[in-house]
Design goal:
Blueprint: E1 2-6, E2 9-13, E3 22-23, E4 30-35, E5 41-46, E6 56-61, E7 68-69, E8 79-84, E9 90-95, E10 102-107, E11 112-115, E12 123-128, E13 134-139, E14 145-150, E15 157-158, E16 164-169, E17 175-180, E18 186-190, E19 197-198
Antiparallel strand pairs: 1-2, 2-3, 4-5, 5-6, 6-7, 8-9, 9-10, 10-11, 12-13, 13-14, 14-15, 16-17, 17-18, 18-19
């Protein structure tokens, strides 16, 4: 199955045929869908039931049922852009934490497990490796730089110099895809930042 985000809502459809799309959400500002590694859940951020209009992380079954807000911290700021760990219990997120967005780890009960970055620069779009040991994310410097960090908060490493956004892992964990802010092309690089090439 493929998860699509368009017109402010989440849809799904099979990738191996021309089946019609199934709309899973409606009625709120929604973005950043992420499939759990076991394929049972989709996490996303939404402003539904948020009087201030701020967005927080929700989850739902892949058929759109059992929608539940995972975390709600209006006094601290938004929690957005979730990506699942392989264990299906933890998620990497971008949290405002009363300032610029930082990369953090929460669980599905809304508990903050760890804050991984804290340099006063917006960090967004976290993506967890399939082994759950590394996170790549976008730092808002020079129109976007890609960084990698261990999930224990160690070994923060810059992988790109600028103009790089939306990182994601290959299934084998050896490659990272990303796009350029301008012009919009998809690129790939090894997990150490070498061997960059356009797809």
């Amino acid at each position: 199955m493929d998860c699509l985000f368009k017109n402010g809502n989440i849809y799904k459809r099979r990738v191996d045929n021309d089946s019609s799309e199934v709309q899973l959400t409606s009625g709120a500002a929604i973005s950043s869908p992420s499939w759990s590694k076991d394929g049972d859940w989709i996490a996303y951020d939404s402003n539904i039931d948020s009087p201030s209009g701020s967005r927080f992380v929700w989850k739902m079954r892949t058929d759109g049922s059992e929608k539940k807000r995972i975390i709600y911290t209006p006094e601290l700021g938004e929690v957005r852009m979730p990506d699942w760990f392989p264990d299906g219990i933890r998620l990497a997120v971008a949290m405002n934490l009363e300032g610029p967005r930082e990369i953090a780890i929460i669980d599905t009960s809304g508990n903050l497990i760890a804050q991984l970055t804290n340099d006063g620069i917006d960090d967004v779009n976290p993506s967890v490796s399939m082994d759950g040991l590394n996170i790549v994310f976008e730092k808002s410097l020079k129109y976007g730089q890609i960084f990698r960090i261990k999930t224990d908060g160690s070994e923060l490493t810059r992988l790109s110099d600028g103009n790089s956004i939306n990182p994601d892992w290959s299934p084998d964990g050896n490659w990272i895809t990303f796009s350029l802010e301008s012009p919009r092309f998809i690129w790939i690089m090894s997990k150490d930042g070498s061997l960059k090439r356009r797809l």
